[in-house]
Write a sequence for this structure.
């Protein structure tokens, strides 16, 4: 069960991050091209939260893989 949870979390998270990547890139380019636009604060906040969530997903994935190795191979 733990192994399926780990694999599912990694695969679903990976596809979720990849599906949002193009949108975040376009928001970043818009912010870079139009630095004085009033709507940039919300776009910048969404890009920052995407980066934070990607980092959190990575940390949790690494922890789950280590946990699986400890339970199954340790």
């Amino acid at each position: 069960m733990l192994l399926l949870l780990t694999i599912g979390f990694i695969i679903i998270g990976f596809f979720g991050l990849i599906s949002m990547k193009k949108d975040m890139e376009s928001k970043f380019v818009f912010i870079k091209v139009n630095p004085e636009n009033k709507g940039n604060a919300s776009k910048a906040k969404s890009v920052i939260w995407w980066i934070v969530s990607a980092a959190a997903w990575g940390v949790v994935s690494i922890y789950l893989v280590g946990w699986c190795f400890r339970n199954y191979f340790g």
User: Anything to note?
Assistant: The two ends are 17 Å apart (CA to CA). Residues 2-73 form one domain.
